[in-house]
Design brief:
By secondary structure, the chain is of the alpha+beta class. It has a single domain, classed as Arc Repressor Mutant, subunit A, CATH 1.10.10. It contains four helices and three strands; from the N terminus they run αβααββα.
């Protein structure tokens, strides 16, 4: 049985060190994630996540990784990750 990881930083560290994949529940991640954190959850590269975020912004939301700009920060909402993955969130 694969151990459950509830700490996103730990999840990222495990991905970097070629550890076995960890199970991460979206209810355990923050409501807003950086693009890099979203990439770790989606198990894609940081570069690919930023390309998809740019695609989202240039296509007016027709394709890519949904993002929200808060000041100078580009963030991904947990609810958008759930929609991409096709999973429901609790409460």
């Amino acid at each position: 049985m694969t151990p459950q990881v509830t700490d996103l930083a730990t999840h990222r560290d495990r991905l970097r060190h070629d550890a076995p994949p960890a199970v991460i529940h979206l209810d355990d991640v923050p409501l807003m994630l950086t693009v890099s954190e979203a990439a770790a959850v989606l198990r894609i590269s940081r570069t690919m996540a930023y390309k998809l975020a740019q695609e989202w912004r240039t296509t007016g939301g027709a394709a890519g990784l949904p993002t929200v700009k808060l000041g100078s920060r580009l963030l991904v909402r947990r609810v958008d990750l759930a929609a991409i993955l096709g999973v429901e969130q609790a409460g």
